[in-house]
Structure formats: C-alpha cells, structure tokens
Amino acid sequence: MSAGLKGIRCAVIGGDDRELYLISELQQQGAYIVGVGFEKASPISGMTLAPSLEEAVGQVDVLLFPLFGTDECGVVKAKYSDSPIVLNKKVLEAIPAQVPLVIGFARPDLKSEANNLGIKLVETSRLDELVILNSIPSAEGAIQMAMEATTITIHGSNSFVLGLGRCGWTLAHMLKGIGARVTGVARKPSDLARAVEMGLHAVDFANLKDEIGHAEIIFNTVPHQVLDRLMLEKVTPDAVIVDLASRPGGTDFEYAQNLGIKALLAPGLPGTVAPKTAGRILAHIYPQLILRHLTTVNTTCKVEV
After folding, report:
1. Which residue of 134, 206, 225, 233 is 20 to 30 Å from 296, comparing CA positions?
2. Strand spans (E) along the chain
C-alpha cells in the first residue's frame, strides 16, 4: 500500500459515484478522509462524516470539490445527500490560509472571492493530464449515447466532431477506429492539418454551414453555442446530436426540438458511464497535486515567518 498521503487530511465534498472510488484510493495512499454529503452512501470504513461544509473546512489540509464545480448559486451537487451543500462567502471566509481548494470548474465569482481572501484555488479542468485521461470515458459514453439514439451503426456513419480539443481528438480517434467517416471541425490551421494527417475530413468552422447537412451524428465539444438556429436549420431532421460541452452546452436545444432533431446534453459522462475508472483517474492525479500545493503553502509560510 502506498502511503504518499500519510497523515494528510482530505475533505471530499459532494460529487457522485466517482468520489466513492476516489475516497477508497486516497485512503489506500494513507490519507484521512472527511466526507461532506455522503449521508446516504453505504458506510465507508475510516471516513469521518462532517455535519456541514463550514465545519469540515477547519478540520482538513485540503478541500476536494467535484470536477463539475458548483452552480451559479454556489451549490455543490451531491448524489448521496439530501441537504444542500453551498460554497458561499461564509464558508470561504472559514477556510484557513494554508488549505488549498481543489475544484474542477471555478466560476468567475468564486475565483474573485478566493483571490480577495487569499485562498489557493486549484482549477483541475486546466490540467491536461486529467482532462486527457477523462476524455476516454467521456468519448466512450458519448458513442454509447449515439448508438442508443440512432437507427444506424456508427460504422459507416457520417460523424462530425465539433471542436478538436483534448476530448475531441480522443472522440475522433475512437470513431475512426469503429469505422465511422469522421469529419473534424476546428478553427486552428494546426488542428485542421492534424485532422488531415489522421485521415479525417477536415472542415473549418467558417465553412461548417456548407457541410453540416451531410452529418448523421454530431458530437459537440465546444462550450459555447455553435449549433444555433441558423446552423440547426441546415441539419437533417433525422440526425442525432450528442453535446458533451458543459452546461448549457453548445446547442440551441429548444430550437432543435422544434425542428424534430434529437439533441442530447451529456455533461459529466465519466461519472455516469465509468465511475470506477473516473475515480481512479482522480486518485492518480490528485496525490502529487495535493503534495505540490501543500509543500508550496508550507514553504511560503516558513518564508513569511
């Protein structure tokens, strides 16, 4: 058993099934876990349940929030709790200066408040190593959704991948491996060149409106509305859209429904389709992240003294 986190007190706050696997993995590495929002989960040996987020922040060395962050009101989604968990100013003011706050997506108001209070905020959605590994279950889940929603096979389909970022590349690679005719849509010349090198049909977003009518399955990874009314009017009614972008997605879902186009929003796929793998990915990335930031904080405190 690795003991890289021996003696380190980690608060795991909210989330879904992947957090259950994360807790187990962190415990195996020697961490002491304080859980917030797990009252309805099966008892986890060795984990202490904190009655509230505000009480937990003073008991630990690091705060681990879910990858999907909070909603606009600061509410943290917690599958295994009926009580709201809110990351508000009162909670932030209670966080000791040396305790890092690790979260997937931090809203601008959270970033601003954390900066004002001198809180070390670590936004893991910016970590390539985490996002690339997470793109594997995301892509598998998106393809599964497409299979269930269409009346055709992925093999031989005209599948469009909008956005060739870290998730888009994984998705395009998987689709090509299954035998789809893949169109990769991007803006950067380097991405379009790489798409050609991979054997994809490469399309610039500026020309998408002229090409999208050929799509039978559309996978969107772009976190702003690229499938707007004008674009959707060029999509065939029997096409299927699987939108992987974070809420609210990159599709005008109401207009798609009006046009009779099946459009599915699919955020947080790793925690839905492969929570064990997703939890292990977090447990692979987080220990060094935690140790690095705790070391930085401790070194800074010593210098200031």
Report:
1. 134
2. 9-13, 32-36, 48-49, 62-64, 75-76, 85-86, 101-103, 121-123, 158-162, 181-186, 201-204, 217-220, 240-243, 262-265
Q: Is residue 213 part of a domain?
A: yes
Indicate whether 260 and 138 sit together in one domain.
yes
Asked if 224 and 280 sit in the same domain, the reply is no
SS3 state at 98? coil
Q: Residue 91 sits in which domain range? A: 9-126+275-304
Do 184 and 207 meet the contact criterion of CB atoms below 8 Å apart?
Answer: no
Q: Mind listing the pLDDT tens digit for each residue in 38-66?
A: 999 999 999 999 999 999 999 999 999 99
User: Could you give the CA distance from residue 193 to residue 7 in angstroms, rounded to a whole number?
Assistant: 49
Is there a domain that residue 292 lies in? yes
Q: Are the C-beta atoms of residues 212 and 178 closer than 8 Å to each other?
A: no
Q: Are strands 158-162 and 217-220 parallel, antiparallel or unpaired?
A: parallel
Q: At 51, give phi and psi (nearest 5°).
A: -70, -20
Q: pLDDT (tens digit, 9 = 90+) per residue, 81-139?
A: 999 999 999 999 999 989 999 999 999 999 999 999 999 999 998 899 999 999 999 99
Distance of CA 249 to the CA centre of its chain: 13
CATH number for position 14: 3.40.50.720
Instruction: Say if residue 144 is in the same domain as residue 267.
Output: yes
Q: 10 Å Cβ neighbour count for 43?
A: 8
Residue 279 located in a structural domain: yes
Distance, in Å, from the CA atom of 84 to the CA atom of 76, rounded to the nearest integer, reads 7
251 and 279 together in one domain: no
Query: Quick one: 281 and 254 in the same domain?
Result: no
